[in-house]
Amino acid sequence: MSKDAKLHAHRLLSYPGVTLRHLEIFAKMMSGSTTAEVAETLGVSQPAVSVSIRQLEETLGLVLFERSGRRLSPTDTAVLLNEDVSSVMLALRGFSRRAADLSQGVTGRLRIVSTPPLGYSHAPEALARLYEHFPALSASYDVRRISEVYTAVQTGEADIGLAVFDGNRDTALQITPIHKTRMVALVPSDSDLASAHLVAPEDLKARPYIGLENDSIFGQVIRSSFRARAVAYDPRIEVRFCATAAALVEQGIGVAMVDPYSASSYSFPNVVRLPFAPAIEVSACVVTRRGIPHSSQLRTFTTLLKDVLHQKELSLPL
């Protein structure tokens, strides 16, 4: 259980008479369920659910639900309190999963969540190597958007997050760079640019190119590079993910500027990879919670991923 979750649990359970059962029923009610649905899910009677809600309200001295006929609607107070309760229930689910693993003889568990650049490229290779060290490892692996990676790590849903950044990020999480490289340009092989030494914004003034959405990390830095060269940024099409841009380059739609991790994820026979100038440095990073000890599985995975990345030819000389 994380430090924050412990604080939430202590705050709620410090009230005499408040039990985990009270909080479990409250959380189910806050998900939009009726008392009948909560009773069926938890295997208790409907009156028991109503009694539990009433007991919780009396113990806290708060009105948590407004009664309208047979329905209970959460008050603003309940919505605020639900933030604490959700953290407690999430920590308890993690406890239950870990206890179940231990009872089945699984002594190690690692929950990984990654953004697409690493999640679809080199992290799977590192995970495969990890199983050579921990054959009985129980793991979960998911690929999500960066905001969802942050949330998963912050709430304790994931032990480790993987992401690619263009520099330091202001976040309460611990972000540790493990590999540094530069953005590259992907060019259709039949383009006159395919034989160039590098690609710069000036080269794209009269050529179609694929942009990345402005609310993405890479979309912002690419726009900055065009401004630095006093070149208008006017892509033919915009996409969210670098892998999508690479697939469109393969179809000859235009040039794209992407991170080299995404560029190395797939084999595109009709695409040439070139350096992009001005150089935009990006780093593969590990995202973890501050103050939480790292398991041997997490430490080993980080080392293996670092090794995998340093073995690859990801950077191109300018």
UniProtKB/TrEMBL annotation:
CDD domains: HTH_ARSR. Pfam families: HTH_1 (PF00126), LysR_substrate (PF03466). InterPro entries: ArsR-like_HTH, LysR_HTH_N, LysR_subst-bd, WH-like_DNA-bd_sf, WH_DNA-bd_sf. Residues 18-75 form the HTH lysR-type domain. One of its GO terms (biological process) is positive regulation of gene expression. Keywords: DNA-binding, Transcription, Transcription regulation. One of its GO terms (molecular function) is sequence-specific DNA binding. Coiled coil: none annotated. PANTHER family: TRANSCRIPTIONAL ACTIVATOR PROTEIN LYSR. Belongs to the LysR transcriptional regulatory family. This is HTH-type transcriptional regulator CynR.
